[in-house]
């Protein structure tokens, strides 16, 4: 490995990407990790590692999921990780640009898993392990390939001797050679065989080899004609498995049913229907036999080949009703534990009405929000796989309930792109059941999920379907939620009268249902609509009502949003000091909540207030911080709003070239997003910045802005068009 990567002492490696390819069980991961440990001093900024699970029986880790983990490790707040893979990859490369780190991408299956994870600088090299040659990396990315074969006979025997010497020092060399040949020189098989031999120091090695040969004959009869090396590994698996006590063997094969490659002790206990104490004893015996790997306290995972073998044994040896019961227990365990986590993570959301858990299912309880979030982060992938497993095995009620529970029990670090796929699986399960209430619930969640990733057409369709279901069922509260969420989409697309109508209907319905939290939320949305339309009198009244309601409910997030709105109203009414104070109070709340999304948005309001009061330097700092946060969040719309504010500030400072640059960037971003309203405002700002230097260009930009604004008829739009037309006349 040193020769492949190059470099001496503290010098950085000269090769950017190295692919270690080889047969299953050939020790690729061990070699990569051992080398990484030996050279850690060359990389002062640390190392990044991810198991991409490319050959696991379950779902592989996607490039975006790996980027999400890496960015958090690099110091990005979980909620600030961009949802778009390209944006996340760009942020990842920018963070590594000035660092010297080693990146280890273990068990990759495809080039598409790997390429977004490649840094842009050779100062941070990448080691990739895979069963595949990944030729595309060599062709396009200049990767060097190191192909691992099996261990030579002498080294295979040395490995066996190292493990067994303290227990059986008198084994004959020729017998060790025979055992090594039966293991095909594969390190994984050799390690398991050596542990088996060490665990039976008084049994002759010849007898152990006879057992292994017998197991090999049995496996040959069941062979699927795969690679000989794979068959050798599986033969050793079978040999070790057959030696397990009955309860340990049963747990091993039941763990093959677990939805996900890594699991906790309590999930394993649910699968087995045993106490956690007894399960811990059995799991420890599996770890000792190298049939499981312990990854953290009470956390375990399979090697992908061992998981496939466990799945086979469950199918061959575990009766169908027992498999069914075990899977149902673990799915119920995840469902009830997610429900418990929701009470801390999303306390305002209604809890699902769940049946009591089956006997033997003991879900976790959480002492505080941090404990709930920690569990949700650790088991996020398992919850996703649980939804898929429930649907695939006909447990439709569990499938829709698991997907709904996961939506409300997601940790702040969960990627926004993960849930919609399982949300659709849950919705299909609810449709198969004919459960209209469940369908409405999941359509509402799907609508919100699509909004988070800027898929507004899909979001509107989901909420309209949810509204029809609620109305058909006479579900007044569900109807109110749908009306409020549809209003938000119309607000974002600037159909302001339609938005206001939906919010007013939602407020009335929430009030009828005594849903004070949601009534206050809809009031804030109505206030935003009035403000966007330029109806400042109405906006002032409703904002005051919303602010009082949120404060009475001790809802800090709602209070901060109302203060942001109030700051904009006060600024336009000429009360600049009050506007500055309100924006600063909102920002303080965002900082206390440690919410970068709110901080970035409310910094724009603070920058606007600082600019209008003449604190131009502070305003530029606020806008820059807002733009940086929104870049990390992948929110290009709000990043462009910060650029627009920066352009206006530079214009007031008389620095029109800088002003024009920022307005151009803002206009281009809004144009790409199809946001005509904000594109027009940015073009107007660009025209103002170019007024003296290039009057004709200024006229063209303002003319485009007027065309973009032609379809808007709210008071703010009418005023803006009049202002632009006046400036056009002045330019002419």
Automatic annotation (TrEMBL):
One Pfam match: TPR_12
PANTHER family: HTH-TYPE TRANSCRIPTIONAL REGULATOR RV0890C-RELATED, REGULATOR-RELATED
Protein name per Swiss-Prot or TrEMBL: Tetratricopeptide (TPR) repeat protein
């Amino acid at each position: 490995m040193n020769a492949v990567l190059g470099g001496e002492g503290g010098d950085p490696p000269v090769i950017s990407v190295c692919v270690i390819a080889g047969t299953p069980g050939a020790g690729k991961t061990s070699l990569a990790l051992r080398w990484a440990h030996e050279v850690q001093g060359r990389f002062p900024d640390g190392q990044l590692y991810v198991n991409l699970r490319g050959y696991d029986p379950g779902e592989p880790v996607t490039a975006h999921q790996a980027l999400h983990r890496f960015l958090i490790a690099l110091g990005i707040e979980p909620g600030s990780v961009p949802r778009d893979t390209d944006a996340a990859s760009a942020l990842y490369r920018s963070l590594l640009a000035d660092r010297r780190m080693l990146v280890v991408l273990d068990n990759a299956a495809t080039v598409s898993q790997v390429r977004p994870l490649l840094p842009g600088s050779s100062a941070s090299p990448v080691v990739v392990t895979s069963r595949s040659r990944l030729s595309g990396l060599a062709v396009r990315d200049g990767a060097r390939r190191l192909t691992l074969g099996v261990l030579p006979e002498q080294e295979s025997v040395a490995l066996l001797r190292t493990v067994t010497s303290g227990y059986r020092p008198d084994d004959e060399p020729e017998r060790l050679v025979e055992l090594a040949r039966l293991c095909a020189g594969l390190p994984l098989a050799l390690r398991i065989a050596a542990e088996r031999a060490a665990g039976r120091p008084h049994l002759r090695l010849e007898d152990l080899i006879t057992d292994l040969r017998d197991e090999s004959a049995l496996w040959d009869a069941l062979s699927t004609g795969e690679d000989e090396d794979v068959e050798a590994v599986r033969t050793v698996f079978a040999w070790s498995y057959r030696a397990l006590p009955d309860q340990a063997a049963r747990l091993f094969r039941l763990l093959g049913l677990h939805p996900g490659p890594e699991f906790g002790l309590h999930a394993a206990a649910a699968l087995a229907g045993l106490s956690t104490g007894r399960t811990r004893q059995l799991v420890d015996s599996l770890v000792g036999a190298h049939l499981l790997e312990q990854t953290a306290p009470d956390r375990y995972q399979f090697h992908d080949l061992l998981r496939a073998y466990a799945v086979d044994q469950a199918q061959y040896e575990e009766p169908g009703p027992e498999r069914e019961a075990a899977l149902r227990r673990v799915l119920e365990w995840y469902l009830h534990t997610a429900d418990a986590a929701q009470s801390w993570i999303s306390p305002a959301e209604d809890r699902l009405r769940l049946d009591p858990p089956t006997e033997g299912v003991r879900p976790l309880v959480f002492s505080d929000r941090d404990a709930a979030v920690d569990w949700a982060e650790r088991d996020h992938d398992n919850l996703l796989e649980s939804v898929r497993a429930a649907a695939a095995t006909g447990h439709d009620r569990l499938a829709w309930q698991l997907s709904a529970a996961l939506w409300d029990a997601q940790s702040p670090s969960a990627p926004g792109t993960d849930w919609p796929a399982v949300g659709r699986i849950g919705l299909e399960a609810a449709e198969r059941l004919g459960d209209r209430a469940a369908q409405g619930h999941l359509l509402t969640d799907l609508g919100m999920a699509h909004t988070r990733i800027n898929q507004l057409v899909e979001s509107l369709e989901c909420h309209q379907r949810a509204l029809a279901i609620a109305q058909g069922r006479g579900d007044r509260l569900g109807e109110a939620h749908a009306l409020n969420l549809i209003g938000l989409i119309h607000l974002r697309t600037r159909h302001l009268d339609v938005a206001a109508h939906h919010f007013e209907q939602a407020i009335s319905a929430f009030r009828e249902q005594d849903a004070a939290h949601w009534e206050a939320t809809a009031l804030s949305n109505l206030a935003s609509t009035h403000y966007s339309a330029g109806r400042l009198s109405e906006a002032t009244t409703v904002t005051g009502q919303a602010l009082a309601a949120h404060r009475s409910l001790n809802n800090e997030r709602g209070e901060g949003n109302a203060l942001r709105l109030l700051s904009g109203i006060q600024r336009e009414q000429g009360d600049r000091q009050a506007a500055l104070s309100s924006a600063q109070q909102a920002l303080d709340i965002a900082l206390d909540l440690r919410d970068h999304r709110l901080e970035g948005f409310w910094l724009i309001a603070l920058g606007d207030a600082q600019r209008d009061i003449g604190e131009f330097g502070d305003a530029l700092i606020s806008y820059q911080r807002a733009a940086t946060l929104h870049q990390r969040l992948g929110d290009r719309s709000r990043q462009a709003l910060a650029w627009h504010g920066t352009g206006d500030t530079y214009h007031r400072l008389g620095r029109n070239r800088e002003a024009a640059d920022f307005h151009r960037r803002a206009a281009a971003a809004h144009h790409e997003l199809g946001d005509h309203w904000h594109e027009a405002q940015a073009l107007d700002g660009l025209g103002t910045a170019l007024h003296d230097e290039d009057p004709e260009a200024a006229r063209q930009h303002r003319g485009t802005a007027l065309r973009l604004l032609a379809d808007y008829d709210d008071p703010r739009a009418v005023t803006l068009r009049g202002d632009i037309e006046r400036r056009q006349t002045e330019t002419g």
